[in-house]
Amino acid sequence: MTSPISSERLDNLHAFWEAANYLSVGQIYLRGNPLLREPFKPEHIKPRLLGHFGTSPGLTLIYAHCNRLIQDTEANILLIVGPGHGGPATLACTFIEGCMTETYPDITLDITGMDKLMRQFSWPGGFPSHVSPPTPGSRRGIGVRARACLRSRV
Fold first, then answer.
1. Could you tell me the CA-to-CA distances from 141 to 38, 122, 152 in Å, in that order?
2. DSSP β-ladder status, 145-147 and 138-140
3. 7: pLDDT confidence band, cut at 50, 70 and 90?
4. Global pTM?
5. Which element (helix H / strand E) includes 146?
6. How large a percentage of the chain has pLDDT more than 70?
């Protein structure tokens, strides 16, 4: 039997989940001002909104706990994300864990990288609204896109 999750670990998981959800929303809606440090203006909003936030909280929660499972058991895990519009969640998680920067060095782990991630989501020449070959760690399967870049960063 395993021991319960410590309060500190649970706080870290929750912080990961909240950050991933914020990045997911930002990818769908924002094309500037990623941390809302200046007064919000219409030009900060994308003219065409693609992606479904409704799927993101569940995917980011599963992703966070898969990372926890990897840390606890050193399991080899392949997270399957279906062919829907869950791209923002997966991209957000790969950004937080650093896998995004390994694949796309110009998307750095700072506000500049966050801005690029949000601008490039569902934009010509950027990332599609679903998990696809450009997603760090993805594998193209038979009718299914599979995520395999989980790390133990939580």
1. 43, 22, 24
2. antiparallel
3. very high
4. 0.84
5. strand 145-147
6. 84
